[in-house]
């Protein structure tokens, strides 16, 4: 176990590594895809497990509610938030397809799936990405360093250069807060 300052130094090093990796181009593509989808009435669907499920709900809260500006609500659905679907479908058919089933229900060509997995290897996230691709949706993968199996299923990959789950999640927070800020600014001014 590390002390607080050591942990903060490791966290800061991961953020610095993200700056060096320079995800500016990928973030621009992600923001453009989300803005285009939402502007045309398509949904942004977000999937994640565990802490990433909480991140999915957090992002939806920022975009359905508000991030920094007073404006209309955006069509954003956090797939982990529907307990009835998760438990009914998971019980009857297995957990690996709880998100792909919801992508089938709520997704459409031109929509976006933000698939969050620190390892990039979560079966339920991979199945959701595969379903989204079958439906001609844009898949934005948000992962750790290598992207895992989600990398080839992603049209856009936002990968944090770390293998530590909590550090990756901290990087994801930076990425999705920036994404929310850009999306909100563009849609509010457009």
UniProtKB/TrEMBL annotation:
Keyword Isomerase assigned: yes
Entries under CDD domains matching the protein: SIS_GmhA
Span of domain SIS: 34-190
Residue ranges of the TM segments: none
An annotated GO BP: carbohydrate derivative metabolic process
Keywords noted in UniProt: Isomerase
Record carries keyword Nucleus: no
Molecular function GO labels: carbohydrate derivative binding; isomerase activity
Protein name: Phosphoheptose isomerase
Lineage: Bacteria, Pseudomonadati, Pseudomonadota, Alphaproteobacteria, Hyphomicrobiales
């Amino acid at each position: 176990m590390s002390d607080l300052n050591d942990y903060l130094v490791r966290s800061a090093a991961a953020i610095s590594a993200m700056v060096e990796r320079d995800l500016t181009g990928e973030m621009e593509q992600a923001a453009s895809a989300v803005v285009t989808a939402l502007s045309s009435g398509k949904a942004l669907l977000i999937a994640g497990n565990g802490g990433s499920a909480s991140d999915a709900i957090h992002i939806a809260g920022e975009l359905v509610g508000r991030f920094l500006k007073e404006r209309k609500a955006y069509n954003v659905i956090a797939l982990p938030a529907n307990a009835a679907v998760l438990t009914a479908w998971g019980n009857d058919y297995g957990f690996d397809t709880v998100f792909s089933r919801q992508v089938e229900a709520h997704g459409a060509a031109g929509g976006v799936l933000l698939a969050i997995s620190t390892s990039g290897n979560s079966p339920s996230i991979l199945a959701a990405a595969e379903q989204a691709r079958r439906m001609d949706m844009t898949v934005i993968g948000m992962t750790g360093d290598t992207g895992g199996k989600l990398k080839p299923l992603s049209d856009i990959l936002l990968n944090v250069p770390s293998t530590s789950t909590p550090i990756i999640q901290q990087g994801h927070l930076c990425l999705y807060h920036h994404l929310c800020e850009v999306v909100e600014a563009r849609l509010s001014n457009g």
